[in-house]
Amino acid sequence: MELELAQWALLLGGAAVAGWVDAVIGGGGLVLIPLIMAVIPGVAPATALATNKLAAVSGTASAAFTLMRTVQPPMKETLKLGLIAGIASGVGALAATLMQEEFMRPLIIVLLLAVGTFVAFKPSFGTGNSDGVRGGWRTWAALAACAGIGFYDGIFGPGTGMFLIMSFTAIFSQNFIKSAAMAKVVNTATNLGGLATFIIGGHVWWTLGIALAIANIAGAQLGARTVLGGGTKLVRYALLTLVVVMSVNLAWQQWF
Question: What are the residue ranges spanned by the domains of the chain?
Answer without folding.
Answer: 5-255
